[in-house]
Q: What sequence folds into this?
């Protein structure tokens, strides 16, 4: 990858050597060769410049898994602007907050997201320009022939803002440079045996706005010049049909997919073309891996990653030998260490907070680079684990209270703030509980003195439906008289989690 300075240059390189090979295919039938993709990326970059978007300006992208997401994202990078991919399912309030926080000069939406993005844009005092795929505004953006743009000179320039929790409750944007994105793509490419070959057909069902789909999947496909099959959303049966129809050989997924496919009687036959399944975003239990391997004969490899690491940190493909419960060893060029509460190595092989170092790390949180790597390049993840003698990492717990629903982060304080807007609610505590299908689910404990429990639960549910994306909405609402507290008055969420564990074990009615 010598001489490549930004992710969009990978497309130009592929187009010069394999112009007529397919690069992207939509499950619905549209496709782009490498030459066509390079041209579309150039057109978008040219259109952005013509619209006054210059280096460093932010462009919010609320687009699903379709060709225009890829061309918009890479066009923004080629224009040396900053891409801000967001969840297409975000509620209007969430979109408005991210638009305002990022200071986006332009927002790109698709037909599914246009109404919500338009409402969010209209709510701002200084609204960005709105461009909608399928409307004249997007056609105009890409109407001019691509013009040469001077290559990126400084790989430390900001490339993307990706919203995540950081070390606080409300989502903040991790600042990922061109250097960080390219570094992790190259670190993944150095893994042996390879995650992706040049002749692989890769399933693109993971959301591209999420760092896993954006850089681990799309970035690796661009690096290896494989073919990516874009799928708008996961449906258990339709996705299996797409895997068969498109002869997908590599299938990157999130853990909840395994629960959806668990009851499929002909799973081995339906996964016939698949040589490798990659699982990330959340831990996968050893029992699920073993059962899936026995039923299908397909290798399942998982890893550990974070938005702030662009994202992949470890992979079981890097392990000396497979070990149940491990998320693998560090990728080439990434260092791991464990620290206790005093910042020292834990004694006697005890678990500790996972700290990482590597050129794939982010540059801190937007806008001022706060809480980035320290002076020696180390960054504490907020996750707890232990390392065995072979270097394999085993996850134990999370210091953060983030709830991971179908691989997506939900930040309890964000949900709590929304629920507290409901009249009658005086206090709320949100936790995550184990869920067979989504990995975890959101449960809200609500205190609303003098209110009818059924009525307040219904009001909370209706308000959350208006204010939060579906995966952030509570799966269950418990209306209680009191919340358990510490001696200093802090809500004891650990006791609430204990109640939920007892409920799961059938010890509570």
A:
């Amino acid at each position: 990858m010598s001489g490549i300075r930004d992710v969009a240059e990978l497309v130009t390189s592929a187009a010069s050597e394999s112009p007529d090979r397919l690069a992207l295919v939509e499950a619905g039938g549209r496709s782009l060769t490498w030459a066509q993709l390079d041209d579309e990326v150039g057109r978008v970059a040219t259109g952005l410049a013509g619209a006054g978007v210059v280096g460093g300006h932010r462009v919010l992208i609320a687009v699903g898994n379709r060709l225009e997401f890829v061309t918009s994202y890479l066009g923004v990078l080629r224009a040396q602007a900053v891409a801000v991919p967001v969840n297409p399912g975000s509620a209007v309030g969430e979109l408005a907050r991210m638009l305002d926080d990022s200071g986006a000069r332009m927002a790109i939406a698709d037909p599914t997201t246009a109404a919500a993005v338009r409402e969010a844009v209209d709510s701002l005092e200084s609204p960005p320009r709105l461009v909608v795929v399928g409307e004249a505004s997007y056609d105009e953006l890409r109407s001019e022939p691509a013009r040469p743009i001077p290559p990126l000179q400084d790989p430390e320039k900001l490339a993307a803002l990706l919203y995540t929790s950081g070390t606080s409750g409300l989502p903040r944007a991790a600042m990922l440079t061109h250097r960080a994105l390219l570094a992790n793509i190259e670190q993944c490419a150095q893994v042996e045996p390879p995650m992706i070959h040049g002749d692989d057909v890769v399933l693109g069902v993971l959301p591209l706005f999420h760092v896993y789909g954006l850089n681990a999947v799309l970035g690796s496909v661009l690096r290896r010049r494989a073919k990516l099959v874009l799928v708008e959303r996961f449906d258990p049966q339709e996705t299996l049909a797409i895997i068969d129809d498109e002869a997908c050989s590599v299938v990157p997924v999130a853990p909840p997919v395994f629960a959806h496919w668990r009851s499929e009687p002909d799973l081995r036959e339906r996964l016939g073309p698949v040589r490798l399944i990659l699982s990330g975003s959340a831990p996968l239990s050893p029992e699920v891996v073993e059962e899936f391997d026995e039923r299908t004969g397909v290798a399942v490899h998982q890893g550990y990653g974070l938005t702030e690491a662009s994202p992949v940190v470890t992979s079981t493909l890097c392990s000396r030998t497979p070990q149940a419960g491990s998320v693998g060893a560090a990728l080439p060029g990434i260092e791991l260490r464990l620290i206790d509460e005093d910042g020292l190595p834990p004694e006697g092989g005890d678990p500790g907070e996972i700290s990482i170092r590597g050129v794939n790390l982010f540059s801190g949180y937007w806008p001022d680079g706060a809480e980035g790597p320290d002076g020696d390049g180390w960054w504490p993840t907020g996750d707890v684990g232990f390392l065995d003698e072979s270097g394999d990492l085993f996850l134990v717990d999370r210091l953060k209270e983030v709830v991971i629903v179908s691989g997506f982060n939900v930040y309890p304080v964000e949900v709590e703030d929304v629920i507290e807007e409901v009249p009658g609610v005086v206090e709320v505590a949100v936790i995550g509980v184990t869920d067979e299908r989504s990995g975890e689910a959101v449960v809200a404990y609500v205190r609303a003195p003098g209110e009818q429990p059924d009525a307040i639960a219904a009001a909370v549910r209706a308000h959350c439906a208006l204010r939060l994306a579906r995966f952030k909405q509570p799966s269950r609402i418990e209306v209680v008289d009191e919340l358990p507290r510490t001696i200093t008055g802090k809500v004891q969420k650990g006791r609430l989690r204990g109640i939920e564990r007892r409920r799961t074990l059938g010890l509570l009615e």
